[in-house]
Design brief:
Helix content is 30%, strand content 39%. By secondary structure, it is of the alpha+beta class. The strands form 2 sheets. Strands 3, 4, 6, 8 and 9 form a 5-stranded antiparallel β-sheet that branches. Strands 1-5-7-2 form a 4-stranded mixed β-sheet, with helices on both faces. Helix 2 runs antiparallel to helix 3.
């Protein structure tokens, strides 16, 4: 399951949805809006999303993770719109029989989401400036 959320991500509800009696554990990644990036003080940020393509590509990433790391449940929700410092911008959860599968699949999903989906991030800085941010580090995944 992959989704785009225009409002706060319901992390507690997502965690409960991942409960599975066959799972030995749940690995979760929560990406939060931080107040600094590359030496600049961030006030808030904004995500623009081409939702139809983001959802279809996100579903493909989840399906690929399931093929690579069998016997798991996986879910990812990414925010759109304006977010404040501390808001959850992206949530990835993977339930698997063993921790190694859960950790690897969770990492795979977040890394692929960052490079494959049409989601753009604009940072607003405390000095009044703003700018679209590229994730060059992610492009080497």
């Amino acid at each position: 399951m992959f989704a785009i959320a225009a409002t706060d991500i319901a992390v507690d509800e997502l965690r409960l949805q991942m409960m599975d009696p066959a799972a030995g554990g749940l690995c979760v990644f929560e990406g939060w809006v931080r107040n600094e990036n590359e030496g600049r003080t961030v006030e808030r940020l904004e995500y623009e999303v081409y939702e139809p393509l983001a959802v279809s590509e996100g579903e493909k990433v989840i399906a690929e993770a399931k093929r690579r790391f069998p016997h798991l449940q996986a879910c990812c929700v990414h925010r759109s719109g304006l977010l404040e410092i501390g808001d959850c911008a992206v949530w990835v959860g993977v339930a698997a029989p063993h921790r190694d599968e859960a950790f690897k699949a969770c990492r795979y999903i977040i890394d692929q989401i960052k490079v494959k989906l049409p989601i753009w991030k604009k940072e607003y800085y405390t000095d009044g400036d703003s700018g679209w941010v590229n994730c060059e580090r992610c492009a080497n995944v």
